[in-house]
Amino acid sequence: PAQRMIKPTTVLGQPAMWLRAPDGAEVTVLLHGGQIVSWIPAGDQERLYLSPDAVAGPGQAVRGGIPVIFPQFGQRGPLPRHGFARDRAWSWMEGAQRGDVVIGVLRLTDDAATRAIWPHHFEAELSFSF
User: Fold this and answer.
1) Is 28 helix (H, G, I), strand (E, B) or coil?
2) Is the pLDDT confidence value at 80 over 60?
3) 51 pLDDT exceeds 80?
4) How high is the pLDDT of residue 4?
5) Is the pLDDT of residue 114 over 60?
6) What is the DSSP letter of 19?
7) What is the phi/psi pair of residue 35, to 5°?
8) Helices within 34-97 (DSSP H only)
9) What number of other Cβ atoms are within 10 A of residue 94's Cβ?
10) Is pLDDT larger for residue 79 or for residue 109?
11) What is the mean pLDDT of residues 76-93?
12) Which percentage of the chain shows pLDDT scores above 90?
C-alpha cells in the first residue's frame, strides 16, 4: 500500500500536519500560528531554522520556520508585535495531492479574544503547495 502523504503529528508539544510530495519532499506545518516549521526538499536536508529554544502554545510565537504576520507587521500598530495570527490556533481545512503537488489549507477566524484587541470580523485562509 502507498504511504500516506498527509498525516497529523506533534511539534513542540502542539498539533501539526506532515505532508510528503510524490518526489519525497516533506513539509511540516504547526497549527499553532499556521507556521511552516520544516521543509526538506526531495533528497536533501532540512532547509528551515527552528531555534533549539523554540516553544509553542497560547500567547507564544515560535522562533524559526515561516511565520504568519497578520494583521500588522512589527510594531506598526497597536497590536502585539507582528499581530496575533502567529500565536493563535489555526484549523486544518484540507490536504490533498494534485498530480506531483501536495497542498495544505489552514484557516483562522475571529473570536472574542481577537475582537477584544482588534474589533473586526475576519476569516484568513493560508494555502501552501510544494
Assistant:
1) strand
2) yes
3) yes
4) 77
5) yes
6) E
7) -100, 125
8) none
9) 12
10) 109
11) 92
12) 82
What grid cell was written down for 5?
Answer: 502523504
The C-alpha cell that represents 8 in the structure block: 497529523
Strands laid side by side in the 35-40 sheet: 6-11, 14-20, 26-30, 35-40
- Whether the CB-CB separation of 51 and 24 falls below 8 Å is answered with no
> For the residues 48-56, what does the mean pLDDT come to?
92
Is the confidence at residue 37, as pLDDT, over 60? yes
- Element spanning 129, H or E: strand 123-129
Q: Which amino acid, residue 114?
A: T
Peptide bond into 71 cis (omega under 30): yes
Cα(26)–Cα(47) distance, integer angstroms: 11
Distance in angstroms between the alpha carbons of the first and the last residue of the chain: 23
Cα 103 from Cα 129, distance rounded (Å): 4
**By three-state DSSP, how is residue 70 classified?**
strand
Length of the chain: 130
For the CA atoms of 93, 97, 102, 105, what is the dihedral angle to 10 degrees?
-10
Question: Which residues make beta-bridge pairs with 15?
Answer: 10
Amino acid type, 59: G
d(CA 40, CA 4) in angstroms, rounded, equals: 17
